Model the fold of this input.
Amino acid sequence: MKIIKWILGSLGVILVLVAIFAFMTISKGEARLAVRYAMEYDDVMIPSDSASIALGKYIAESHGCQGCHTPDFSGDIMIDAPPFTVVPSNLTSGAGGVGTTFSDADWLRAIRHGVGQDGRGLVVMPSEAYYYMSDEEVGALVAYLKQVPAVDHELPRTKFKTLGKFILGVSDDFKLTPDAMMDSPRIPMPEKGPTVERGEYRASVLCQVCHGKGLTGNQPPDPDSPLAPDLRTTQSWGLDAFMRALREGETPSRKLDDAYMPWSKIGHLDDTEIEALYAYIKTL
Ligand code: HEC
Ligand code: HEC
Done:
C-alpha cells in the first residue's frame, strides 16, 4: 500500500510541476504577443502617377502578395489550426479592409517592418524580405494597393490560441516582427538592366528570405517547407533553363513545388530581371 501511495504522491507532484511549467510558458507567450512596437515612420514619398502604379502592380505580382492576400487583395482565412488562425488581411478599401484607415506611414510600417497600425507584431507577414525593398519600389507598391478596387470582406484577425501561445513561450525562434529590431543596411537599387548589381538587389528582396544570404541554401520561414537549395548549383544550367525554372517551375531534373518555391509568382519577373539574377548567381 505504501508504495502505491508513494507513486500517487509523486505523480501528483509531477502533474503540479507540469501545470506550473505550462502556465508559465503560456504566460510568456502571451507577454510576447502583448508587446507593442514603436516604430519610426519611414520617410518615403508615395507617388500617384500611372507609371508608378504599373510598377507597383508588377512588384505585388512578382513578390507574392496575392499568394496570401488573395488575387483581389480581399484577404481570407489561410490556416485554421489548433495553435493559431492565420488571416492575411483585406488590403482594399472595402468593408473590413485596411485601405480606409491606413495612412502612408501605416502601409510602410506594415510592409517593411511587420508592425501593425496599433504597434502589434504582424507575425506571419513576411516583412523580413520586404524590408529590403527600395524606397522607389515600396512607394510604387503602396501607390498601387491604395487604388485596387474595394472589396467588402470582414475577417477575424490572426490569432494565437493556447497551444500557439505555448509555442511562442518555448521558442524564441518564432519571431514576432523580425524587422522592428532590424537595422541592416539595404542594398541600394541600381538602374534596371541585366547586371550583376541589379540581380544582387533583386535577390536581397525576393530570394534571400528563403535561400539565405549569398543564396547558399537555407530553411525557409515556413517550417513545413523543404530546404531551399544552394543556388550555385544552377550556374551550370544556362540562362534558358534557369528562366524555365522560374517561369514554369521545371528544372533540368524535376518539378518545383509552387507551395514552397513560389515560381508562379516569381515568374512574373520580366526577362531583364531574370537575366540580372542569373548574372549575379554566376558570380557566387
Ligand atoms: C506568407 C503570406 C503573406 C504574404 C506573401 C504577404 N502577406 Fe501581408 N500579411 C499576411 C498576414 C497573415 C497578415 C496579417 C497579420 C499577421 O498575422 O501577420 C498580413 C498583413 C499585412 C498588412 C497589414 C494589414 C493589417 O491588418 O494590419 C499589409 C499592409 C500587408 N500584409 C501587405 C502585404 C504586401 C504588400 C505583400 C506583398 C509585398 C504581402 N502583404 C505579402 C500574410 C502575407
Ligand atoms: C518562399 C521561399 C522561397 C523563395 C522566396 C524563393 N525560393 Fe527558390 N526554392 C525554395 C524551395 C523550398 C526550393 C526547393 C523546392 C522543391 O524542392 O520543390 C527552391 C528551389 C529553387 C530552385 C531549384 C534549385 C535546384 O537545384 O533544383 C531555383 C532555381 C530557385 N529556387 C530559384 C529561386 C530564385 C531565383 C528566387 C528569387 C527570385 C527564389 N528561388 C525564391 C524556396 C524559395
